[in-house]
UniProtKB/TrEMBL annotation:
InterPro entries found in the cross-reference section: CBASS_pafABC_assoc_protein, DeoR_HTH, HTH_11, PafC-like, WCX_dom, WH-like_DNA-bd_sf, WH_DNA-bd_sf, WYL_dom
Keyword Transcription regulation: yes
Residues annotated as domain HTH deoR-type: 2-61
Organism: Mediterraneibacter hominis
Keyword entries, A-Z: Transcription, Transcription regulation
Taxonomic superkingdom: Bacteria
GO molecular function terms attached to this record: DNA-binding transcription factor activity
Keyword Chloroplast applies: no
Protein's UniProt name: YafY family transcriptional regulator
Amino acid sequence: MKMERLIGILVTLLSQEKVTAPQLAEKFEVSRRTISRDIEHLCQAGIPVMTVQGKNGGISIIDGYKIDKTLLTSADMQAILTGLQGLESVCRNKKYQQIMEKLSVGNPNILTSNQHILIDLSSWYKASLAPKIELIQTAITSRRKIQFYYYSPHGEGMRIIEPHKLIFKWSSWYVWGYCVRKKDFRLFKLNRLAELKMTGQEYEIRELPALDMSSEKLFAGSFTVEVRFEASAKWRVIEEFGADSFREQKDGTLLFSFAFTDEENLFEWLLSYGNRAELLKPEEMRKRLKERIKEMEQRYE
């Protein structure tokens, strides 16, 4: 574990001009004291690590230093290249392709051999997503605030944030940062933001809280529903929730049970199945859905 962390720190230092001990401690989930010891070990191994104290200080590697790629096994290289190919799928520039070509010097076949995993992080919105990702990446590395107009289920409005992380989760891209208006860290979905730009204002690195992106943390207050699906909807239920989310009945219907956190999203999802889905429980929620369907029926009269 220690050797993996040392290699990870070295790769981080090679990829960034300068980082701080708190940033490394957060990234590798260890104490600052442990990071200090790791830096000492790297220096003892002959790696020219330089530390500068003060406000604009940090840890860096002397310019011109090159890593011996024999430190990385073929499997390590394949894992790195797979990740880079995934990032390349959402970016318009050639940066990641150039990195892959540098890593493959002396072994060009590594780009094509054993490629049994392909990660594509793009989406139907790639044309609008790529410039957002690139701008936010630039803002994070240059510590510049960003401004955008945001649309959410709770309303819409202009936001200014200090961006800290780009995150790909639940098949979507998010930016996590400190919201100036809310005075707290928030998660923003890239597909919901518009008029994105850098403000030109710099920001100081804050003490970052632990980023817990578990469903339990982000979507508190869940409720369990029971739904009966027609057999013709089986493929879609499996695609969205897995084959363990329902019990198949003797008549071929599916008895589905799952925890949701938002009633409005639940109703929209159920209605997308048309007459192939019936909400059974909770009873009060079933009544509200029935009223919603009546309102829809009246609109078409």
